[in-house]
Amino acid sequence: MSALPTTRGDTLANNFPTLYPSPQVSLGTDEEHHKRLRARKVRNFFKSLFSHALINFIGLFFLIPFLWMLLTAFKSNQDVFHTPPRWLPYDNVRVEINGKQYPLYTIQTEDGPRKLAALKIVEGIGSFVDPDNPDQVMEYEIQQGATKIAEPIMEVRFNWQNFPDAMQRGSRPGIGASFWVYFKNSLIIAFFSIVGTLFSNTPVAYAFARLKFPGRDILFIIILATMMLPFQVTMIPIYLFFNDFLGWGNTFLPLIIPTFFANAYDVFLLRQFFRTIPEEMCDAARVDGASEWQIFTRIVLPLSVPVLATVTVFTFLWAWNDFTGPLLFLTSPKNFTMALGLQDFQSQRTMVWNQLMAAATVFTVPIVIAFFFAQKTFIQGIKLTGLKE
Amino acid sequence: MEELQIKRKWTWPPKLPKWSHRERVNFKTGMLFLLPWTIGFLVFTLYPMVASFLYSFTIYHPRQPNEWIGLQNYANLLADDKFWNSLSNTFYMVAIGVPLTLLTSFFCAVLLNLKVRGQSIYRVIYFLPSIVPTVASTILWLWILNPQTGILNTLLGYIGIQGPNWMSNPDWSKPGLILLGMWGMGGTIVIYLSGLQDVPVSLLEAAELDGASWWQRLWYVTIPMVSPITLFNLITGVIAMFQYFAQAYVFRGTHDLGYPLNSTLFYSIYLYQNGFLWLKMGYASAMAWVLFIVILICTLLLLKVSERFTYYAG
User: Fold this and answer.
1) In angstroms, what separates the C-alpha of A222 from chain B's closest C-alpha?
2) Which partner for A186 in A338, B60, B259, B276 could form a disulfide, CB atoms 3.0-4.6 Å apart?
3) Cβ distance B289 to B110 under 8 Å?
4) What is the ipTM of this complex?
């Protein structure tokens, strides 16, 4: 028994008392045994402390950018460019004078610091009034040499207004299309893509999963091989076909129509699931004289709701996320999708990062909601296909 | 035995093996079910492949007469500095970005597989960034990597590191993009995690019984057992990275592609520039075919090399 590693031996002995004779033999006195147990407890405590610390530290890498997106979306226009950046969103404290809001400043006057409201600030000289006595306008320089005379008073405030502001503006000034329009366009494209994907992929997958006919296996190899083909190879002819031949440029059709003609990923995913449905059920129906189409629609499809949900979720994800397709085909801003609109907004270099982040948040939220409703579906789909983007 | 040796006369049209009535009916049913895919394959895969192959031998402009120039496009590619530049940028991402992402995602999967309290919450946190739409996450990271007001350099500043000018320094633009990619590696982590859960407990216990430490079990049992998953992640990662487009495009926008100093001019970006901004569609088609060949060679090479390092149980 002494050959067994002692500390591990005793746990095993507890599990298999008949296989391993009592390890107490090698453990010596009770006191030594307790000492060893205590040492193990301490070691395990530090082990778990270390793994917790590590998992939290790396978790920050995934979490902070998320938080940063949200917090930036709530910041006021000045606060976005505050250096060094602050975590929480700050905004000017404002006072109401004659029905208008003015930011409050701390001014270093001759008689000590005073809290005054700034009416306007032009070329470094501000016009200030006392909120309690708004008729007397005083002028102060904001900065004298290195010392700041006027310092805005800030407070933590979440600017919810950024969200409606971002959604009601377009990606460029004066285009008559807002982010709401982009949002709606993305929804329309995603909806029809889901319909097309579900209708076109299920019969194809059923044929590969359950029908026996000559040439099936060769065709299945071909369909898998098309996964290898980079989009860049087919991109130009497809573009010319839709844009020049059919004249569908700047419409949603080039983005929707291809989904009605099946794709390798979804066929593969559905086929894998269809093969798990017991063959006997289909055979029983065949004996009763059901056609293949009836078996497919009445037996296989009703049993496949989970995988159809997976396909729905992933098609939504893909259509919502797609950037290259809209970039190629959609040219006028009123047809932009969220992805394209957001890129267009960013490329204007307007630097309103708070609104950009607000729009990005609105763009992300539907997917996060979908994830929390269908967490299992997501994970299952990823495992089944290794689909990543 | 003589009956078995059928001498086949080659005739045109070739005689197909005679199908029974049953087979013919089955074939018809099958083809009806396959109809959506067959049409899609012909229109959206086969025709475009043939067409782009033919375009690659022409000067193709959508609104001008086209001219057959043989292999000239391919010859021009070899002499095009920007082509080589974009290819080497892409290889940088494939050779550094993909393995780095694989390594870290495996590490994260191992962490998430430990029995710690709140495990499911950690899994959600690690996974969630991967479902953020590409355009949103890229813009977010542009903001994070901002040298003055970005959060990354601020955090680095807390521990006394002067962060680089991520977006305007050609040496740091690609590492910035790799960071962005690593933020969204949740999908890879999930695949690894499911692989880790499939490692037979009996093997790990046997190793433990033999006195193997945690590291030894990881190195000698777990890593070989998940090697097929590593291969899968590696190949899909390499294929995706060769086509890296959206992030790099959003990074700079249409008028600034490749900035700084062409350090983010990736292959697909240069292809897009040629095909859709300069309307040199023949040239872009030739680039696409070169890309396809490069991807094929790399995939086959990986499969060949990995034979020695991949362990398939059962």
Assistant:
1) 10
2) A338
3) no
4) 0.89
| CATH number of residue B99's parent domain | 1.10.3720.10
Return d(Cα A305, Cα A155) in angstroms, integer.
51
Structure tokens at B228: 């097929």
Place of tokens 């497809």: A238
In a domain, B261, yes or no: yes
pLDDT higher than threshold 60 for residue A84: yes
- The per-residue pLDDT for range A98-133, each reduced to its tens digit, is 778 888 888 887 777 888 888 887 777 888 888 877
CA distance B2 to chain A (A): 28
Contact assessment for residue B240 and residue B234, using Cβ atoms and an 8 Å cutoff: no
How far is it, in rounded angstroms, from Cα A174 to Cα A157? 30
- Partner A contacted by B52 (CB < 8 A): yes
Chain B: closest CA distance from residue A375 (Å): 9
Domain presence at residue B126: yes
* DSSP for residue B114: S
Asked whether residue B33 carries a pLDDT value surpassing 90, the answer given is yes
Say how far apart CA B188 and CA B101 lie, in whole Å: 9
pLDDT of B272 strictly over 80: yes
In this structure, is residue B48 part of a structural domain? no
pLDDT tens column, A310-327: 999 999 999 999 999 999
Residues in chain A closer than 8 A to B192 (CB atoms): none
Q: Which residues are CB-contacts of A88 (< 8 A; sequence separation ≥ 6)? A: A71, A156
pLDDT for A1 beyond 70: no
**Residues spanned by the domain of B153:** 81-306
DSSP sequence for B11-58: -SSPPPPPPPHHHHHHHHHHHHHHHHHHHHHIIIIIHHHHHHHHHTTE
Q: Rounded to 5 degrees, what are φ and ψ at A124? A: 80, 0
Residue type at A46? F
Is residue A121 within 8 Å of residue A142, measured between CB atoms? yes
Q: Smallest Cβ distance to B254: which of A5, A66, A347?
A: A347
- The total domain count for chain B is 1
Beta-carbon separation of A234 and B48 below 8 A: yes
Name every chain B residue with its beta carbon within 8 A of the beta carbon of A69: 136, 140, 143
CA angle at residue B174 from B147 to B94, to 5 degrees?
A: 160
The answer to whether A156 and A74 have CB atoms below 8 angstroms apart is no
Higher pLDDT, A149 or A75: A75
A7: pLDDT strictly greater than 50: no
pTM above 0.95, yes or no: no
Q: How far apart are CA A101 and CA A116, in angstroms?
A: 13
Q: Are the C-beta atoms of A191 and A284 separated by less than 8 Å?
A: no
Nearest CA in chain A to B111: A55
List Cβ neighbours of A371 (8 Å cut-off, separation of 6 or more).
Answer: A378, B128, B131
- How close B46 gets to chain A, by Cα (Å)? 9
Closest-CA distance, B122 to chain A, in angstroms, reads 7
Q: Please give the backbone phi and psi of residue A129, each rounded to the nearest 5 degrees, phi first.
A: -135, 155
Fold assignment, A169-385: MetI-like fold (1.10.3720)
Residues 191-220 of B with CB under 8 A from A: 191, 194, 208-209, 211
Cβ–Cβ gap A72/B39 under 8 Å:
no
ω into B260 cis (within 30 of 0):
yes
| pLDDT level of residue B202 (50, 70, 90 thresholds) | very high
Q: Which one of A216, A223, A241 has the shortest CB-CB distance to B37? A: A223
Range 274-313 of B in CB contact (< 8 A) with A: 275-276, 281, 284-285, 287-289, 291-292, 295-296, 299
Question: Distance between CA B249 and CA B271 in Å, rounded?
Answer: 12
Kindly state whether residue B189 falls inside one of the protein's structural domains: yes
